[in-house]
Structure formats: structure tokens, C-alpha cells
Amino acid sequence: MSQFISVFDMLKIGVGPSSSHTLGPWRAAEAWIQKIKENKKFDLIDEIKVDLYGSLSLTGKGHATDLAILLGLSEADPEYVPIEDVFIIVDRINTQKEILFKGGKTVAFPENSIRFNRDFLPFHSNGMTFRGFCKGEEISTQTYFSIGGGFIVQENDNLEEEIEINKKNFPFPVNKAIQLEEYCEKNDLMISDIVFKNELELRDSKEIDFELNRIWETMLECMYIGCHTEGKLPGGLNVKRRAYDTHLKLIKDTTYTNPKEWITSIRSTEVKFREILKWVSCFALSVNEVNASLGRVVTAPTNGSAGVIPAVLMYYLVIENHDADFEHVKKFLLTAGEIGSIFKKNATISAAMGGCQAEIGVSSAMAAAALTELLGGTAAQCLVAAEIAMEHHLGLTCDPIGGLVQIPCIERNAMGAIKAINAAEMALETNPKNVKVPLDKVIDTMWETAKDMNKNYKETSEGGLAVTVRMVDC
To answer: Cα–Cα distances in Å, from 61 out to 6, 21, 81, 264, 303?
Structure first.
């Protein structure tokens, strides 16, 4: 049986700035609290300590890992917690030196309760250990790893079992891109059709539509907020938000009062080539500026690459097809999710494991395939588009200055979105039978490149721009 990764695993609503270093630790803290409740140890614990290792430690402050741990321990849900409450919860813990749990229980949590260790645990570079004590005696110890895209595994879990594998018989089990292509050709279906039929084994059609729409609404709201917020990003680099000024020039004197009216207003603006480039870049920048500010984004497939997919989808809605509706959004997200899942099964979507090729590269491939389907391409051409997009991100390093998901991360989303659009257009003019590099081969190559890459270029901020450009230079 093939491993099944749902579109809702690949596209998750959460809080920025990092899926590996924020969402993952947040979910791990939640999981540990749930585990000690199940083991009847929760009521006994009067002290908690957390150790962060490797990449989580090296860039943890810049990626708000410590804040995510506090929020997860407090049982706040990253998908639903009001963004304004995030800072209220953190400030309360830091001020009162205790964690308040649901039900009223409090546990002392002094300032040194989270320890940053530069050592790397052997299984994965994003390791963390939660320890619970009762009257000085350690009664619970659990180690978790954040393996990219908000996915977590416990120590001693098999990597192949890092997410739940349902025991259902899915009609179209997919591990490799070639399988997906064969299903589509044999059954005369598009990629989104295949994905939808698999998803129906887990949810009914109304729930699938509801959740996909919620994901899209979150993406749209994120772009809207980013395009209407000015100022500087937090963290000390003093990065000026750019989406606001770019949007102001592009939108001109059109009027609107909400995100849906905003789409109509954008459709009425100029669509010269330069304006199109600016709009796509603006959409991508806006998402990742919100992400960098600990705002709500959709992990797609990571937070650091969250701007690519909404930017390309928005491009289709406001430039390519003014009559597009939810059915187009649905097809786009389903196709994108499936392409991302193939990368996850056969390589990685974690920058800590594979550099930025595993984040921006994968998101660009996801968006390219999805756009190709909406533009009328065949399933085979969709896979060609994904291959082209990834091929031209191979070897891309992860080297965030100051450990912040800002430079060069935000701009890379704009570049990944533009590459995705270009890859789709090239694929539409390509006969897949003439392609020399199939998608599965480029995924294998990406994984080999990831394994060969020096760890300094894997989200540690110990190489590349993170070394040549210091915080003091900014």
C-alpha cells in the first residue's frame, strides 16, 4: 500500500515565520502535553524544561521557536488562535514565569526553562526534548523532530511512518510521479480528479470543499493584509515592507472594501508585462512579510515558501481568467498538494535537510503544475512544468541573515512564483514524449543534492549570505 499524504497535510493553516522552526515545535509541544495527559502524568507535573538542538537552536530565536514552544505548551491552536492573543499569551508567561493550561492548572516556567543546545541529534537537525518533573524527579521525557512543513515525528519513529498512514484502500495510491501520470492517462482524468477521488476516502465532498475554501480564504486574507500594511519587519534587520508601496502604485485609484472586491479591482488595472511581474511579486512579498511578522499564513508546503502558491493562483484569477471561480481554486490546490506530497515521499520539504531547494523549489514546482492544469495542459504537461520549476532551483541554499525568514527568503518567494509561471508556459509548449528529465528523476537529484550539501547551507545561518552579511551591517 502506498503512503497517502493529504492535500490538507501539505497545505496547513498556521502562524509564521517558519514551519520547521515555529509550527513544528508548536505542534510538538501540543503533542507532548496530550501524551502526558493520556499517560495520567499531567496532574503530577510541577516543572517543565525544554531542550532545543541543532538548527532549532542556531536559528530558534529568529524563527520564534521559543515563542512557539510557549504557545504549544499553553495548548493554543496555531490554526485558530487569534493573532493578537499570541503576544498576550507569551507576555503573560514571560511576566508571571508560569504556564497557564486549559482548566486552570499552572506550572512554573522560569526564564531558563528553554535551553538552546548547538549539538545536533543524530536523527534530524531539528530536534527538541520535553521534560516533565514532579518534586524534582523527572517523570516524562519525550524527544520530537520537526521534519519540515509543520510535520513532526517522535524519536525512534520510522521516517516512513512520519505521518499517519491510513489503512483504507485508496483508489489511486501514488508514490511516484510516473504512477500519477499513468492513472491520469488510463482513466482520462486530470491530476486534481485523482487527488479528489483519494480525498473522498477520508472526507465527504462538502468537507473537502469547505476546507479548501478555508485555505484559499486564508491565503487571500494574508495577501490582502500584506498589501495594506506598511512599516518595518520585526527582528532587528529593519527590513522595510515593500508590498505596501508596490501595491499602492499598481492599484491606482480603484476602490474596494474587502478582499473579494479587491480581486475585482485588480482585474480592472493595467496588464502590461511589467505590471504583471510586479503584481505577482507583490502578492508573494505580501504573504511572506505577513509570515515574517508572526501572522497567519498557509504552510505551502512550508512557511518560508508560503508566498509562491497564493501568488501564482492569484495571478491566474486576476490576469489569466477573470471568470474563474472556486472550482478553479479547488483544482489548483488539489494538484499543488499532490505534487508536494510526491516530493515529500521521495525527497524532503525541509530546508534543514535540503536547503532552500526543498522549500522554494518544491513550492514553485507545486504551483507550476497546478497552473498548467488550469491553463489547459495535460497531466503529463503538469509534471513537465513541475520538473522545469524544480530543475532550476537545484542546489539553492538556505542562508537566512540573522536566522530570520526575511533576507533572502521573502524575495525568493517572488522569484519562485515567476519561475512557476514561466515553467507552466514552457510545459504547455512541450511534447512530454520529448522530455529527457522526468519529474521523478529531478526529485531523486534534488534529494542527492540535499544529502551532499554542506550543513552550513541548511537553515543553520552558518554559511552564505548569513555569514557574509552580518546583523551589524543592517
So the answer is: 31, 9, 21, 40, 16
- Give the DSSP letter string of 384-419: HHHHHHHHTTTT--B--GGG-S-TTHHHHHHHHHHH
Give dist(CA 323, CA 133) in Å, integer: 59
Q: Which pLDDT value is given to residue 118?
A: 87
CB 114 within 8 A of CB 91: no
DSSP sequence for 188-243 = T--HHHHHHHHHTTTS-HHHHHHHHHHHHHHHHHHHHHHHT--SB-SSSS-PBP-H
Q: Please write the tens of the pLDDT for every residue from 97-148.
A: 999 998 889 999 998 999 999 898 888 889 999 999 999 999 999 999 998 8
Q: Which residue has the cell 511534447?
A: 431
For residues 195 and 162, give the distance between their C-alpha atoms in angstroms, rounded to a whole number.
21
Give the three cell numbers for residue 136: 524534582
SS3 347: coil
Task: Give this prediction's pTM.
Answer: 0.92
- Cα dihedral 340, 342, 343, 344 sign: positive
Q: Assign 304 to helix, strand or coil.
A: coil
Distance CA 386, CA 311 (A): 16
Contact predicate 292/17, CB 8 Å:
yes
